[in-house]
Amino acid sequence: MFNLNNPRFVGWSNYRTIITDPGFPRLLWNTFVWIACSVAFQFLFGLILALLLAKPFPGRGLYMGLVFYPWALSGFAIGLLWSWLLNGQFGIVNDILMRLGLIKVPIGFLSDERFAMFSVILVNVWYGIPFFAIMILAAIQSIPNELYEAAQIDGAGLFRKLFYVTLPYIRPTIYSTILLRIIWVMNFPDIIYGMTRGGPAGATNILSVNMINIVYYRNNFGLASALGMIITAILLVFAIIYLVLLERGEFEL
Amino acid sequence: MKKRRLQDVLRFIGLSIFLIVAIFPLVWIFLTSIKPATEVYTFPVKYLPSKPTLEAYRYLFSFARFNVYFKNSFIVATTSAVLSTLFSIVAGYILTREQFRLRTFLILLLFFVQMLPTYLIMIPQFTMFSKLKLTNTLTSVIIIYTGFGSAFGTIMARAFLKNLPRTIEEAAMIDGCNRLQVLFKIVIPLLLPGVGSIFSFCFVNSWNEVFTAVLFLHTDRKMTVPVALYSFVSKAGIQWNVMAAGIVMALLPTIVVFMLAQKYIVEGLTQGAIKA
Questions:
Q1: Which chain A residues touch B113 with a CB distance below 8 Å?
Q2: A-contacting residues of B 8-37, CB under 8 Å?
Q3: A121-148 mean pLDDT
Q4: What are the tens digits of pLDDT across the range B81-99?
Q5: Quick one: angle between helices B225-234 and B66-97, nearest 10?
Q6: Which ipTM was obtained for this model?
Q7: Contact: B123, A187; criterion CB under 8 Å
Q8: Dihedral through CA A30, CA A32, CA A38, CA A43, nearest 10?
């Protein structure tokens, strides 16, 4: 293991190594794409699921149990599981797409640089839908029924009710959930680690995955710590945004 | 009326799609785990095993020592969940009922600790624990998971406690109960759903954690289930039906816990995560 008994002061050199690395801009870009696409689609599908679940129906409790369970599963194991589903040679996703006649030859979802980022985001969206759905559903259920009745009398249709009653009412929940998710998704290397470990050729490498690779494969704790500090600094920016919104009364603590 | 009917049909279709997408991966990994080794690598894919077999599970538990990893994971997850639940309730109780300086600061601090991912503080932790000669012990990861569990658990406990009327506690105090008696005889029994929610949440989190565990537990006898899966990946030549069986075993306990405590977990999550 790394020699921990003789630490040596190296000044800013670890930070310089990270920032001047030719791969660093791509690392930042990947992290940004990973966060933006994952959170946007998790929110969109989570909202749709919550709206579908808003009206009670027989068996709703059981249904929620089945649809929400991915949220409690191990991200790393989920990554491994999906790497099998998306396997370029024996994967069932390729099989289904070919049987449907959508593709002619199997796609290397995880081995082809063009598809790798798309694939890990797809899995992260799958994993993150329940969290948004749970939060939004709870908020929707706290909307007083009178608001809908009033909208009904005014002749509002389905979409008007959604945009003028539901969404404004649950705005605080949406804001705080999205912010929490951004922080969480940025710091969530588990799925990528289970699927690609940042590969192929760094196509899915994000900050958190890179930090773990530095610890496990290069045993360079100093370099990893410097990267950790950079991640913490970015994290702090979001934490401050959160606090500002909190202060403005957008949601409560 | 016709419009209402159409809406219901669309809702049904939507709900079915979400259900299939959610369940399908798990069904598929289970089917892979009961396939004979020869039927795993075929393309076009063979959907159902011609003869279901427990071969992969047998391999897992006899050669791969999964019983040891499973036991280790169970010890780690249960111990840390029990400890975090206990700490969370005591801390949450004090932070809700008492007024003192730095209280708001402490709550905010807990909130930020919750945001920090485990891998960020892995390095200082590793340095510290190796000085204490605690690396490669289950104790080390139990301590770490308890810390993380307590942070989130306290926030959840606070959310539950805020909804608990204080009048009962005050009545008990007038009747001569002290603070501890109030906590254990009145608050905790009333808070049982919350306690279940916190416990399940901490259990699931500890069971699922990989990165600290891989760094801290490196000998075969000390591995937890995620560490074992991790070592499977690097081991060339591991069959995918065995891998699938390992994944099923890793997911199973959390599915059981989630199904049992789903209602409470969802309640705790919505109350705890937002209104920190």
A1: none
A2: 11, 14-15, 18-19, 21-23, 25-26, 28-29, 32
A3: 91
A4: 999 999 999 999 999 888 8
A5: 130
A6: 0.89
A7: no
A8: -170
